[in-house]
Amino acid sequence: MDTADLAARLACVRRTWTPQQRLHVGNVAWSHAHGDGSAAPDRTLAWCRPLLGFADIWLPASAEEPANASLHLSPRTMTPRQLVNALDELRQVAPRVSLEVPLQQTELIDALSARGFVESGGPWFAQLWRSLADLSDLEAHTVPDGYSIRAVRPDELAARVEVHRRCWDPARIRRMLGLPVTGDEGSSSYSIDRHLAVTATPVYRGELDMVAVAADGSLAAFGLGWLDAESGSVLFEPVGTGPHHAGRGLGRAVCAEILRAARDLGATQAVVGPRGDGGYPVPRRLYEGLRMREVAQVVRFATA
């Protein structure tokens, strides 16, 4: 995806955004930079000009498995016929395909059902939201003794990358998910080059790239906020606390500071999409502690 494609996708998501929508401009930018470590898709699809919808498709290694797709189609800008035509084209590329959609987009759910998709179960994600009109409740989330929270500095590139790698170490994530650790997980793929790609996206704001600093000057936690000035919304993606600093409220304190900074930059609302099921409840509890409430459920559908 080149710069023009990214700009088109950002504009498309901005035109359609509601708090119930699966994608925010921050998700698009984060994915474009491969911040989450995902591979480049095998196929991409785009619908209409100006862009009204798009899909990334990862084809399976085995014919026994369905393809995986990241799909953005919005009933706010596409007619029912356009939705169905887009799904037909998707199924031509990947007859067996799995994707995630919000249950609250009922017109899209109807189109999926008409084209043979059924809810497939498994882990699902909650879309959480809050207003930034009154942030007085954040005063309760004080910074733990011995730490300070501020925006990352330009001279901290290596340290910023390293705290991300510690927080999102693959073996650590597997343990938090209750999965077996084999010793073959390797290290995080996040790198200086990848972080530079993140910061080069047009919606990155250094003021919303927050870190928690320990007494010895090392970075203990981080959180990245993505501001969409048009909708006045800020997204958390990602947030992490280092393993030796966990359980002290640093993640919540970092997010509280992002909310304050985003409000000062003009944001009026915040969203985040943690796991909604019980398989990994900690992130959801963190955000609900910031008075974020569920406004949508993003679930997986697949072709029958």
Secondary-structure map with pairings?
Blueprint: H1 3-16, H2 25-32, E1 43-47, E2 53-58, E3 67-73, H3 80-93, E4 97-102, H4 106-114, E5 117-119, E6 125-131, E7 148-151, H5 157-167, H6 170-176, H7 192-200, E8 209-213, E9 219-228, E10 233-241, H8 250-264, E11 269-272, H9 282-288, E12 293-303
Parallel strand pairs: 3-4, 10-11
Antiparallel strand pairs: 1-2, 2-3, 4-12, 5-12, 6-11, 6-12, 7-8, 8-9, 9-10
* CATH architecture annotation name of the largest domain: 3-Layer(aba) Sandwich
What is the rounded distance between the termini?
A: 30 Å
Q: Going by CATH, what is the homologous superfamily of the largest domain?
A: Gcn5-related N-acetyltransferase (GNAT)
Mean pLDDT: 96
Structural class by helix and strand composition:
alpha+beta
DSSP helix fraction: 25-40%
Which blocks of ≥5 consecutive residues have pLDDT under 50? Answer: none
H-E order: HHEEEHEHEEEHHHEEEHEHE
- Biggest beta sheet attributes: 12 strands, mixed
Compute the gyration radius: what is it? 19 Å
Instruction: Give the total of domains.
Output: 2
Q: How much of the sequence is in beta strands?
A: 25-35%
Structure description:
The protein is α+β, with helices and mostly antiparallel strands and 304 residues long. It has 2 domains: 3-125, Aminopeptidase; 129-296, Gcn5-related N-acetyltransferase (GNAT) (Aminopeptidase), CATH 3.40.630.30. Helices cover 31% and strands 25% of the residues. The protein is built from 9 helices and 12 strands. The protein has helices at residues 3-16, 25-32, 80-93, 106-114, 157-167, 170-176, 192-200, 250-264, 282-288; strands spanning 43-47, 53-58, 67-73, 97-102, 117-119, 125-131, 148-151, 209-213, 219-228, 233-241, 269-272, 293-303. Strands 1, 2, 3, 4, 5, 6, 7, 8, 9, 10, 11 and 12 form a 12-stranded mixed sheet that branches. Strand 2 (53-58) and strand 3 (67-73) form a beta hairpin. Helix 1 packs antiparallel against helix 2 (25-32) and helix 3 (80-93) packs across helix 4 (106-114). The protein is globular and about 55 Å long.
